[in-house]
């Protein structure tokens, strides 16, 4: 099974087909169960550089279309992290979160948790994708 990576895609040039890409993480874990999403990064002593935890939180369900509001808290997380909320690969919010005391909310169908500083330069409206890493 091929590994995954998290890539920031920015188009800085007006009128040209340039695609500026920056790899944010090369070691990616996917939290695809309710239990793994609830646990998140809690109880870990640290995470490595180039790491990302990707939470596939899905859409609003049967009653509501589109992404729903997703909360991230820092209880039992011992180190600062950067969190990116995505709706269809578009960044809706980026937040530096602090151990034990931060809480934040944004619309998303996918949430990325990265080491503090890894999301520097990422802002709302950017495109961030999780893709297969090249061999």
Describe the 3D structure.
- It contains 1 helix and 10 strands; from the N terminus they run βββαβββββββ.
- By secondary structure, the chain is mainly β.
- The chain has a single domain, classed as Protein of unknown function DUF192 (Jelly Rolls, Sandwich), CATH 2.60.120.
- The strands form 3 sheets. It has a 5-stranded mixed β-sheet with strand order 3-4-9-6-7.
- The chain is globular, with a radius of gyration of 15 Å.
- Report low-confidence residues grouped into runs of 5 or more: none
Looking at this structure, what is the CATH superfamily? Answer: Protein of unknown function DUF192
Mean pLDDT: 89
What would the principal axes of the Cα set say about the shape? Answer: globular
CATH class: Mainly Beta
Approximate helicity band? under 10%
User: Structurally, how many domains make up the residues?
Assistant: 1
Largest sheet: 5 strands, mixed
User: What is the ordering of alpha helices and beta strands?
Assistant: EEEHEEEEEEE
Strand content: over 45%
Instruction: Give the name of the CATH architecture.
Output: Sandwich
For the record, give the distance between the C-alpha atoms at the N and C termini, rounded to a whole number.
11 Å
How many DSSP helices? 1
Total number of beta strands: 10
From the alpha-carbon coordinates, what is the Rg to the nearest angstrom?
15 Å
SS content category: mainly beta
Strand order of the largest sheet: 3-4-9-6-7
CATH topology: Jelly Rolls
């Amino acid at each position: 099974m091929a590994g995954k990576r998290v890539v920031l895609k920015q188009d800085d040039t007006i009128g040209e087909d340039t695609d500026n890409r920056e790899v944010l993480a090369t070691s990616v874990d996917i939290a695809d169960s309710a239990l793994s999403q609830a646990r998140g990064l809690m109880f870990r002593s640290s995470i490595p550089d180039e790491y990302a935890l990707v939470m596939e939180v899905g859409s609003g369900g049967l009653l509501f279309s589109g992404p729903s509001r997703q909360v991230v808290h820092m209880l039992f997380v011992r180190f600062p992290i950067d969190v990116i909320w995505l709706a269809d690969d578009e960044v809706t919010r980026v937040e530096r979160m602090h151990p034990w005391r931060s809480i934040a909310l944004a619309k998303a169908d996918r949430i990325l948790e990265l080491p503090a500083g890894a999301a520097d330069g990422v802002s709302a409206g950017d495109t961030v994708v999780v893709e297969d890493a090249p061999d």
